[in-house]
Amino acid sequence: MSDTADQPQSPLSAPAQEASGTHPAIRSFVLRQGRMSNAQTRYLETMMPRIGVPYRPERLDLDALYGRHAPHIFEIGFGMGETSATIAETHPENDYLGVEVHSPGVGSLCKLVAEKGLSNQRIIQHDAVEVLRDMIAPDSLAGVHIFFPDPWPKKRHHKRRLVQPPLVALLASRLAPGGYLHCATDWEEYAIQMLEVLSGEPLLENTVDSRQGGFAPRPDYRPLTKFEQRGLRLGHGVWDVIFRRK
């Protein structure tokens, strides 16, 4: 079981590093083509003008965006959006900003937002690294979700994995003190890498004692998907890694 079973392949899943002068530029996705359904196209066209946030290289006023002061949760790569919509619906006290470049997924989440009447979900269809770097102020996020990113299981592709030290350092800088970074995967080897990378970030600390293995129990706010439930019945593991900003 993997994110490829849970949802169509999310393009916000691989940090390809490209040289730009002497400083490497990190990207958070590998763009893949996907077929849009009629409903996804319709909701993308009608809802994005209402809940979409255009990328601009300037700081985003999150309170003004939602029209209130509330905790802001940032999600990288929401796939088809089922989990995102469920979390936003069950936690109206928080505001959620999802970043995804995959148009079918964006259209799907737009549809769910419309059907559920959600007022606390916004979407940016752009590279998450550039959004974090340019639009999100330091020390401003209450939490970050990265659920079931592409595991890139072949060893030669591990460098494409999303959870790498440069991105984690950027994420940590955008978290407010006490804010959390929550990663989840159903690939044990990737889970171990996630734990190692987050443990190596000086601004973060694990919410679970390392003597207990370092992995966290699934919080109530992260719902089980139908694919995850099927995998668990078959004996597949799922690992949650939750760190907090010091």
TrEMBL record:
It comes from the Bacteria. One of its GO terms (cellular component) is tRNA methyltransferase complex. Substrate binds at K154, D186, T225, K226, F227, E228. It catalyses: guanosine(46) in tRNA + S-adenosyl-L-methionine = N(7)-methylguanosine(46) in tRNA + S-adenosyl-L-homocysteine. CDD domains: AdoMet_MTases. PROSITE patterns: SAM_MT_TRMB. Residues 1-12 have a biased composition (Polar residues). The keyword S-adenosyl-L-methionine applies. Residues 1-23 are annotated as: Disordered. Belongs to the class I-like SAM-binding methyltransferase superfamily. TrmB family. This is tRNA (guanine-N(7)-)-methyltransferase. The gene is trmB.
